[in-house]
Amino acid sequence: MGKITQEQRNRYFEKVKEHRKTIEAGLAKEKTLGELVAKDANGTGYKRLALAESTLDLCSWYVLINTLSVSLLGIKNEDYLIEARKVLVRSIKYLEDTVSPFLDSPFSDYEAKLEEIKDFDPDSRYRLVRKLGFAVQSLEDAFGDNSKYSASFIEIWGKMAAVSKNLVNLKTAIADTDFNSPVRNVVLAHLGLVKSLFQRSADKYREQYELYTHKQEDFKKAIVYLQSLRRLHVVLAEREEADTLKKKIEIWSSKLEADQKRADEHRK
């Protein structure tokens, strides 16, 4: 890579100056909304949804500045990517506080939280989930494959899987996907995304176990994601899919047990 010229620097900093104003406004908005949540308990769920949206917007602006750095200077700006990661984590936390972070729990455990945002319609829920997914993927791509943060995205995708699932009203899901339901297509699409996120998380945690960490905790997490996916299939009365996953869980659990036994024997 050639030496960065002063002209390139000037163009970059001029662009950054423009976007910094937007970022500062976004941070101020987040602070104001946070103060509203702290002061007034009414409509807390909706306020947290607004916080999640606003921080996802912030994440996009931080990633954009890195994109400009790559485009105009030929180098990544990790400072802005790190800030993007911070606001992305905050966004997910706002969603966890809204609908719960539960991974494999009965719907009744968080049903009351969904009741607080009952007017947040299925289209808006699915749009928010897709917006979150776009932010996570954009940031992961911006960091690149060999980043020290690469492994942390497995956890981030897993958290996204949980909140995406918990945004769905599983009590009405079967009725909502009936052929006569006006929200059938969007709820089916949302559920399809949730299923793929759970399977992805299971595969990624197992891959991390097999190729990198060899920590049994990672394999256990992989199995938990499969169990969570199976619970979803059971709730949706998808018996064939649930039975297939049951067999897969048994195979993975047997593999983990065998690995544990081998590790114990090796330590003797």
> What's the average pLDDT?
95
Largest sheet: none
Indicate the radius of gyration in whole angstroms: 21 Å
Shape: globular
User: Share of helix among residues?
Assistant: over 70%
**With helices defined by DSSP (H or I, 4 residues minimum), what is the helix count?**
10
- Low-confidence segments, ≥5 residues, pLDDT <50? none
Question: What is the rounded distance between the termini?
Answer: 53 Å
User: How much of the residues is beta strand, in percent?
Assistant: under 5%
Order of helices and strands: HHHHHHHHHH
Structural class comes to mainly alpha
**Quantity of strands, as a count:** 0
Descriptive overview:
- This protein has 268 residues and is mostly helical.
- Helices cover 79% and strands 0% of the residues.
- Helix 3 (78-99) runs antiparallel to helix 5 (122-143).
- The radius of gyration is 21 Å and the shape is globular.
- The N and C termini lie far apart (53 Å).
- The mean pLDDT is 95.
Please outline the helices and strands.
Elements: H1 6-39, H2 44-73, H3 78-99, H4 111-115, H5 122-143, H6 152-166, H7 173-176, H8 184-213, H9 216-235, H10 239-267
Helix pairs in contact: 1-2, 2-3, 2-5, 3-5, 3-6, 5-6, 5-8, 6-8, 8-9, 9-10
